[in-house]
Design a protein that fits this description.
- This protein has 96 residues and is mainly alpha-helical.
- It has one domain.
- The protein is 77% helix and 0% strand.
- It is built from three helices and no strands.
- α1 packs across α2.
Length: 96
């Protein structure tokens, strides 16, 4: 059981890094630091969006329009943090 919780916590941590990567890449694209016409940038952007959009889309549905500012990644990071703390506090310690 301990190994299962460790894998879940590791997956949540990895997904956190992916969300931060999407946020940083979106800023770089918005400020024209990187160009979407570059095949590598486009493939990384498409891959990261494919990983994060299923989790971000339901959050965006409930958020009001904020004039071009997207805080859905922040809310998703807070949800991930809550899930991690729930696992650590309630289940992870019980598996010992």
């Amino acid at each position: 059981m301990h190994a299962l919780f460790s894998v879940i916590l590791l997956a949540l941590e990895l997904y956190t890094y992916i969300i931060v990567g999407v946020a940083i890449l979106s800023w770089l694209i918005a400020f024209n630091v990187v160009n979407m016409y570059n095949d590598l940038v486009r493939s990384i952007w498409t891959g990261l969006n494919a990983l994060t959009e299923p989790a971000l889309k339901p959050i965006r549905r409930f958020l009001p329009s904020m004039g071009g500012m997207d805080i859905s990644p922040v809310i998703l990071l807070l949800i991930i943090y809550f899930i991690r703390q729930l696992i650590i506090d309630n289940f992870y310690r019980m598996s010992f």
